[in-house]
Amino acid sequence: xxxxxxxxxxxxxxxxxxxxxxxxxxxxxxxxxxxxxxxxxxxxxxxxxxxxxxxxxxxxxxxxxxxxxxxxxxxxxxxxxxxxxxxxxxxxxxxxxxxxxxxxxxxxxxxxxxxxxxxxxxxxxxxxxxxxxxxxxxxxxxxxxxxxxxxxxxxxxxxxxxxxxxxxxxxxxxxxxxxxxxxxxxxxxxxxxxxxxxxxxxxxxxxxxxxxxxxxxxxxxxxxxxxxxxxxxxxxxxxxxxxxxxxxxxxxxxxxxxxxxxxxxxxxxxxxxxxxxxxxxxxxxxxxxxxxxxxxxxxxxxxxxxxxxxxxxxxxxxxxxxxxxxxxxxxxxxxxxxxxxxxxxxxxxxxxxxxxxxxxxxxxxxxxxxxxxxxxxxxxxxxxxxxxxxxxxxxxxxxxxxxxxxxxxxxxxxxxxxxxxxxxxxxxxxxxxxxxxxxxxxxxxxxxxxxxxxxxxxxxxxxxxxxxxxxxxxxxxxxxxxxxxxxxxxxxxxxxxxxxxxxxxxxxxxxxxxxxxxxxxxxxxxxxxxxxxxxxxxxxxxxxxxx
Length: 547
Prior knowledge:
The chain is mostly helical. The protein has two domains: about 30-255 and about 515-545, Cytochrome c oxidase-like, subunit I domain (Cytochrome C Oxidase, Chain A, Up-down Bundle), CATH 1.20.210.10; about 270-500, Cytochrome C Oxidase, Chain A, CATH 1.20.210.10. The protein is built from 17 helices and two strands. α4 (about 120-130) packs antiparallel against α7. It is an enzyme of class 7 (translocase). This is Cytochrome c oxidase subunit 1. It is a multi-pass membrane protein.
């Protein structure tokens, strides 16, 4: 493999190419540092800031949806615009907020955790980030195109997509670009983990966060082209006279669903496996114990990834598939609950009889386990085909996947932020504010999404701008909760993220959490611009540097 170049064009990460003194710690400054960033820490920061911006955009759309649903009747928007909001909220949150945020964590932490000098392909890393900006602008800008944004739901089902205005094409192009970005990021992560680990760090000594990301990266490479295929067929149906999904020309709209969900179900695990990795780092640190069942965690993660390819049609129980198909997908879905449960039991066993303290990272980790488990149970209920037939496309499904994705992915990210931010910024966040953020988020999240289970059981369909009077009370509660939850994240940014980014707060020790393990705690806080230019020599556990 050729040498990896740092921003000065010098080879980095090889003992015989150590830097000369005169530019040992001179990071590029000003706008050039960010536009031409090749340092994994800077690119990680860019990803995290981008994803938080998109979280706010998607969050505003969510609050517009909840404002409309605060009471029956049409308050603010017409049904067409309402459907644009639901579609764009989903697309922006999945492709603009959750996925780039986890790539940000990967960029920051993987080289530090495996003792690499940087990511394997530094310039490709820069390119994969900057691709997201035009894609995001195209997505958000689709509101201002003739006919408004796409209004086919984030799943972009035919035949609605064949009837949308030009914004549909912009959306397809944006998702192609984001997919290319994901694939490049994944290649980078795989090569970094497999080729650039410090000597002595075998795969089975690697931190769980690296393991979950290695498996996630393979998943991304496997399924992003499937999404690209589905939306390309949509594009040719729209403009080039093909009939993949048009029954009038012999096509089949249900085929689109099969192709989309063959991407979409592994995608759900792409958005949760890195979260599992973060929780597997945080829980042992605050329980002051080794992670229980490390090998079983690795195998469980791999099993989830493999099984995720054979469960896709549990999203399609009402499409008229044969009974045999329903049974297969029902049992396969129940099977995937087993490795997921293994992880939850392992985290609980790690905490069992540990000397636990509840700083903010641990609060979010425990909150994650509690609320994610609830989301898992509702998923198990929806896996039962006869029940799903009743609950298909109701608010029960909305409740289920928000418990998994908001309380799952988002809470894990918050946990990871509080855990690693002292290493990133060199200062400790304000513990009291962190705890306020946790309790405010946890309570308002449950106030928002728990009533949706009842709405779904009572038969309220999702993506409807209006509803009968009997659903009014729970909708009002959910809408109030949503605004509280949204303001909690604004509080997080203004009073926790900004002060730590500016270096306000007490100085962080090199290892702020006494029981935290891993190479990232062997470098100073804040982590210097260049780390591990000479590969570290590891102790037997591959968590500490010796000599």
